[in-house]
């Protein structure tokens, strides 16, 4: 069973920009909550969107609604109730008691999905740490086994060490151990970055709301076989691949975990070692699902998380916005969006379809221009002993013309990036000295 509480109280604006936060439609929130449940193979027997005018400290929902849902749970023999909203430990405990079923809030559900999706040791460590931090605040149960013995000290001869205290201490020990292991992971990643900087390939990170098509784009650009399915959080562990752009510029492309609204802060903290790939990237591609009705709100959530990581989403020299899934738009909406932008944004969009390949060559050219500079027109004259460079020129530039000279050498006119120009000069210098 999936319950989507919609609070009538308007969300606060962004304190830094004084810009009001965009609200999502109830339908979009409902579809996302059901998608999250289905992402771990849950089959909801009943879903409901509930308007909450006055959130109750004890149960979040009103007593009438709680009683109504308890009857549905009983009749449907439901074992799990998902509440698409953060719940306090007390609210979760009270709802479990009233509904007579296990209750999972939005944070807990996201953690369950992450736990199932993690494949690498690093991903598993990060999920485990987030799980333990989440569980630490949930040790508020009042089951009978939680008191192991009666103590003789105190005014009333109260209980001795409770199971809660023992569990909390055990959790804290595990958290400390995981943090130590993740610190080792962080140092290893730092070493890898240092090695990459010695061979200075620019790093391009793809970020976006979950299910925006990041892995599909990653596969399209690199030819990799990363899992790409139409589901929330289809992939979790980061993937890096080296790819050569049209004019020969090599870059490292990074596919990261998808973002989502109300992403738990301790989850961001746990995944910081992974998300630092975004922080260290030379260029960030913010991929948007432009076919989603809530694309503007999703973009705002991504920008907020980037800001939390220290990345300025408004820095157009480093962050480029790309609209994906334009193949899912009808002709009228497509023409309107490409002409007018979203929310009055008149900036010409970079519109692509990662699934069909439309616009990918344009995107590659823009990436190459950002990391290597504008194309320059060059005329290179090679001596006979330098003809070994001809093949390299064809692979790393657009050859406009070629003239065979009488001395056996060639003169090549080509368009190449600034970095390719520098590489040509370096290769010619080495040839001359050799």
TrEMBL record:
Signal peptide: none annotated. Residues 1-27 are annotated as: Disordered. It is found in: Cytoplasm. Keywords: Coiled coil, Cytoplasm, GTP-binding, Magnesium, Metal-binding, Nucleotide-binding. InterPro entries: G_HFLX_dom, GTP-bd, GTP-bd_M, GTPase_HflX, GTPase_HflX_N, GTPase_HflX_N_sf, HflX_C, P-loop_NTPase. Its main location: cytoplasm. PROSITE patterns: G_HFLX. Residues 11-27 have a biased composition (Basic and acidic residues). Residues 161-195 form a coiled coil. The keyword Metal-binding applies. Residues 202-375 form the Hflx-type G domain. It comes from the Bacteria. GTPase that associates with the 50S ribosomal subunit and may have a role during protein synthesis or ribosome biogenesis. Monomer. Associates with the 50S ribosomal subunit. Belongs to the TRAFAC class OBG-HflX-like GTPase superfamily. HflX GTPase family. This is GTPase HflX. It comes from Mesorhizobium robiniae. The gene is hflX.
């Amino acid at each position: 069973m999936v319950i989507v509480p919609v609070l009538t109280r308007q969300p606060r604006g962004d304190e830094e920009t004084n810009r009001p936060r965009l609200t999502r439609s109830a339908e979009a929130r409902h579809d996302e909550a059901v998608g999250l449940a289905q992402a771990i193979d849950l089959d909801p027997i009943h879903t409901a969107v509930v308007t909450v005018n006055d959130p109750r400290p004890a149960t979040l929902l009103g007593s009438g609604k709680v009683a109504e849902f308890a009857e549905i749970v009983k009749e449907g023999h439901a074992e799990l109730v998902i509440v698409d909203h953060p719940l306090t430990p007390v609210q979760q405990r009270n709802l479990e008691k009233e509904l007579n079923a296990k209750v999972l809030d939005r944070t807990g559900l996201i953690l369950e999905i992450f736990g199932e999706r993690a494949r690498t040791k690093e991903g598993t460590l990060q999920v485990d740490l987030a799980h333990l931090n989440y569980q630490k605040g949930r040790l508020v149960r009042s089951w009978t086994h939680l008191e192991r013995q009666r103590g003789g000290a105190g005014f009333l001869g109260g209980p001795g060490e409770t199971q809660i205290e023992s569990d909390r201490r055990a959790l804290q020990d595990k958290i400390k151990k995981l943090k130590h292991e993740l610190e080792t992971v962080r140092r290893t990643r730092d070493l890898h970055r240092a090695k990459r900087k010695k061979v200075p390939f620019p790093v391009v990170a793809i970020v976006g709301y979950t299910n925006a098509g990041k892995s599909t784009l990653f596969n399209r650009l690199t030819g990799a076989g990363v899992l790409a399915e139409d589901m929330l959080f289809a992939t979790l562990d980061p993937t890096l691949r080296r790819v050569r752009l049209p004019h020969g510029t090599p870059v490292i492309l990074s596919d990261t975990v998808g973002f989502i609204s109300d992403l738990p802060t301790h989850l961001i903290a746990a995944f910081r070692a992974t998300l630092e790939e975004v922080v260290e990237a030379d260029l960030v591609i913010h991929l948007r699902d432009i076919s989603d009705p809530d694309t503007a709100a999703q973009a705002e959530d991504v920008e907020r998380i980037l800001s939390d990581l220290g990345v300025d989403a408004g820095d157009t020299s480093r962050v480029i916005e790309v609209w994906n899934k334009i193949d899912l738009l009808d002709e009228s909406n497509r023409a309107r969006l490409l002409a007018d932008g979203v929310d009055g944004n008149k900036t010409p969009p970079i519109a692509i379809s990662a699934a069909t390949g439309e616009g990918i060559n344009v995107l590659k050219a823009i990436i190459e221009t950002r990391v290597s500079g504008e194309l320059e027109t060059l005329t290179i004259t090679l001596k006979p002993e330098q003809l070994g460079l001809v093949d390299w020129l064809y692979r790393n530039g657009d050859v406009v013309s070629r003239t065979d000279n009488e001395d056996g050498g060639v003169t090549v006119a080509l368009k190449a990036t600034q970095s390719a120009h520098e590489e040509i000069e370096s290769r010619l210098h080495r040839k001359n000295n050799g």
